[in-house]
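Exercise 7b. Backbone tokens:
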């Protein structure tokens, strides 16, 4: 809390200003005093919003938010310099307080999820949910600064309106797409990762690197514990349509399955941050992100189309065709139910062909057999629960002969059974330093990408990926990082 500056007004409307609480891109926040002597937080907004005809509707929507774990909007004015008055919550921000563990972390997750549910039910999208907008009051966490969020369904209209803090922004926010409640779901998960680990899931270093990770990389969750871990993973899906609603997140946090689900928010993709984006429209939005004002800061190739990794639908037909392509006697027993097993061939042929000669049944059998046999092998592997390490490659930019830029990412490609989640154990060893045993989930083909949240130092490096369970394998890759000034 700082004293007022000479340029600060002594009062705003009926509210006397006492001290500065903070300042940001949207305005300055003051500790004020209401006409009744009650302390309040007064946010004096930048000029220009008063002429926006939607602003009054958004303020009205913010006033309708139920007072669950929020700093309630008490007053607002569009006359002259616009301002918003909210409850004053005494306490540090989550950004200042840092890491949470155990029950404190769980309570923080439930309280902030409750606040966002109330905000969404009022038709408001926060758009800038971050640790600095969570106050840790004496009566629990409170979410603030949602009063100037756009009402749901309204897109941004001015070129500078990439509203949000990059480390907590969703992919669609970076792409400049119309925003809905899903953007807050993504930000909530990022905030919880910060609270548990001290760092957001895609890092908080240079803007181009953070944006690249958000668009294309898997999140780094550190030692985020269960039961939060699978819930947070589902909320970090790249495609907003793949994320659960905030209300379903809250239900899961308190131990109740979301309505209409099979008691699992993470069934979309095991152990990863949601399925790869398959919607052409959404891919086009990500591809167009380079037209934003922020694109001037992006390195070449930072914004690319997400690769198609949609798993095939082979498991369902293969199981059916496998039954049809086994030895002749079992199908005869299944299709000839009630007939004696001693004469399956004689009784099944007239029943199946319905007057046609046996040649037609012979011509049908060779057709499914060649196609069904490889699928039968896949199904057998699924039953065995095998995981295979297919490759270990580098995702980065060559800046010279056999020389990479410092920001690159080792990527292990793993293949497991389609249509079935398998947990696997692994470890990364970087230049001889073991980063410890970790676990994740594989369904079909997935990438395990090491996110160091920092650049490799110039010189020679060796990365080893060890697959530990349910099968054992290892692959290594060596590379050279160029000197930054060479």
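Sequence design result:
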């Amino acid at each position: 809390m700082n004293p007022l500056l000479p340029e600060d007004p002594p009062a705003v409307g009926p509210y006397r200003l006492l001290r500065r609480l903070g300042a940001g891109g949207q305005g300055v926040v003051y500790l004020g005093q209401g006409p009744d002597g009650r302390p309040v937080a007064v946010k004096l907004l930048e000029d220009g919003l008063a002429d926006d005809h939607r602003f009054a509707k958004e303020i009205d929507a913010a006033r309708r938010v139920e007072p669950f774990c929020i700093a309630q909007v008490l007053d607002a004015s569009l006359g002259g310099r616009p301002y918003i008055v909210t409850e004053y919550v005494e306490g540090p921000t989550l950004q200042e307080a840092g890491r949470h563990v155990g029950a404190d972390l769980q309570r923080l997750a439930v309280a902030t999820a409750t606040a966002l549910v109330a905000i969404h039910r009022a038709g408001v999208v926060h758009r800038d949910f971050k640790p600095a907008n969570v106050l840790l009051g004496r009566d629990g966490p409170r979410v603030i600064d949602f009063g100037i969020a756009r009402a749901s369904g309204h897109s941004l209209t001015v070129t500078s309106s990439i509203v949000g803090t990059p480390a907590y922004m969703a992919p669609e926010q970076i792409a400049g797409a119309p925003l809905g409640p899903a953007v807050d779901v993504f930000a909530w998960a990022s905030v919880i990762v910060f609270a548990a680990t001290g760092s957001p899931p895609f890092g908080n270093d240079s803007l181009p690197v953070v944006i690249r990770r958000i668009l294309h990389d898997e999140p780094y969750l550190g030692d985020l514990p269960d039961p939060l871990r699978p819930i947070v993973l589902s909320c970090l899906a790249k495609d907003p349509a793949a994320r659960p609603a905030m209300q379903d997140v809250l239900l899961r946090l308190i131990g109740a399955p979301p309505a209409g689900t099979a008691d699992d928010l993470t069934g979309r993709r095991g152990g990863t941050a949601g399925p790869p984006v398959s919607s052409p429209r959404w891919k086009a939005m990500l591809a167009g992100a380079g037209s934003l004002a922020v694109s001037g800061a992006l390195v070449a190739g930072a914004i690319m189309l997400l690769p198609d990794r949609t798993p095939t639908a082979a498991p369902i037909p293969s199981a059916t065709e496998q039954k049809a392509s086994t030895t002749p006697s079992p199908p005869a027993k299944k299709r000839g139910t009630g007939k004696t097993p001693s004469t399956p061939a004689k009784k099944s042929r007239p029943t199946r062909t319905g007057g046609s000669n046996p040649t037609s049944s012979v011509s049908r059998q060779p057709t499914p057999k060649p196609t069904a046999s490889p699928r039968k092998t896949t199904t057998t592997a699924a039953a065995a629960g095998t995981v295979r390490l297919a490759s270990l490659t580098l995702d980065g930019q060559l800046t010279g002969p056999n020389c990479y830029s410092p920001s690159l990412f080792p990527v292990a490609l793993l293949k497991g059974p389609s249509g079935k989640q398998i947990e696997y154990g692994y470890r990364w060893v970087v230049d001889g330093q073991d980063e410890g045993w970790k676990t994740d989930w594989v369904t079909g083909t997935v990438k395990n990408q090491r996110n160091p949240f920092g650049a490799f130092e110039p010189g020679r490096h060796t990365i080893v990926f060890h697959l530990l369970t349910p099968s054992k394998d290892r692959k290594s890759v060596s590379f050279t990082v160029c000197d930054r000034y060479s």
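Instructor comment: The first strand starts at residue 11 and ends at 12. The CA atoms of residues 327 and 446 lie 35 Å apart.
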